[in-house]
C-alpha cells in the first residue's frame, strides 16, 4: 500500500482512512489555518492569542507542537488500530493524571490527527492545555523553545503576507538573505541585503519597496516589539541601551516629549528651560486618564527608571536598535550564543 513518506506540512491521508481526502504522493494540501492569513499587518508579540486570527494561530501553534511526535508515530505504527490504542493509552497514563478527561482527549485527538492527516481541528486545538500554556511541558520540548519556534514561524508568515499585499514577489529572489533593523525610538525600519544566491539581481528599488512596505501602519513598531520580546527573554539587551529605551518610552507615552532633548545631570534630566523631567512626568500623570489608584504607581515606576538610567551616560548611549534576518520566508533572530549573529556586530 503506498504511503506518503515525506508529505511535509499540510493535509494528507497517511493511513488511507476511508471517507477522508486522499492526496497524491508527496503532495499535501495546505490546511485552512495556514491559508487564512487575512491579517495584513505584523502582529505585536505573536505569543499573545488575542488578535483577529486567534483560531488560526491556536491551530498553527498546536500543529507545530505535535509535528515531531506525529512523524515518529508514522515510523512506529503501521496501522490506525495500533496507533489509536497507543495514543489513548499514553494520555490515560500516570504522566497525564494532572489534566482533565476533556484535556486528555483533546491532546490524544490532536496527536492522532497530526499523525494521520497532518492537521488539527480548532475545537481540539482550543481545548488542548498546550494552547493556554497550562501544560507542564510541550510535546516537542520545553515551553520556551516551542513558543519561540512558533513566534518566529508566525512572524515569517506575517512578513511574507505584508510583501504579498504590497505586490512584492519574494519567490523571485530564491534564498537571498536580508537584514531588517528597527530603531526602537523612531520605529523606523531599514532593509539591507546580506547575501544573494539567487539568479536575479537585487536592486536598490527592491530594498526601498521592502522598506516602505514594512514601515506602513504599525508594522515596524510591532516588528520591533516582537524582537524586543525575544531579545529580553534571551537576555541579549545591553543594559545602557535598555535603560535609555525604557526611560524614553515611558516619558514619551505620558508627556509626548523626547527625553533625549533633556540634559542629564546628577539630579535628573533637565530641559532648556530648567524644568525637571520627573516634575513634567508627574504633571502628565496627574492630568492623565489613569485611574487615581494607578497614578502613584506610574510615577514611582518612572522614578525607578530614571534613577536606573542615571548610572549611564545616555548622551553617548546608542538608541536601542534590533535586527533580524529574513530568508525564504524564514525569520532568524539572535540566539543567546555569543557570535551567533555576527552580521549585526
Please tell me about this protein's structure:
The longest helix is centred in the first third of the chain and has 23 residues, at 54-76. By secondary structure, this protein is α+β, with helices and mostly antiparallel strands. Strand 5 and strand 6 (330-332) form a beta hairpin. The strands form two sheets. It has a four-stranded antiparallel sheet. Strands 3-4 form a two-stranded antiparallel ribbon. It folds into three domains: 1-165, no CATH class; 167-233 and 325-331, no CATH class; 239-316, no CATH class. The N and C termini lie far apart (54 Å). 46% of the residues lie in helices and 9% in strands. It has helices at residues 32-35, 54-76, 80-91, 101-116, 122-127, 129-132, 143-165, 204-214, 219-233, 239-255, 277-286, 292-309; strands at 177-183, 189-195, 263-265, 268-270, 321-327, 330-332. It has twelve helices and six strands.
Helical proportion, percent range: 40-55%
**End-to-end separation:** 54 Å
Shape descriptor = globular
Mean pLDDT across all amino acids = 83
The total count of strands amounts to 6
Strand content: 5-15%
Order of helices and strands: HHHHHHHEEHHHEEHHEE
> What is the structural class?
alpha+beta
Number of domains: 3
| Main β-sheet description | 4 strands, antiparallel
Spatially, the strands of the biggest sheet line up as 2-1-5-6
**Count of DSSP H/I helices:** 12
Residue runs with pLDDT of under 50 for 5 or more positions: 48-52, 136-142, 338-345
Using only C-alpha atoms, the radius of gyration works out to: 25 Å
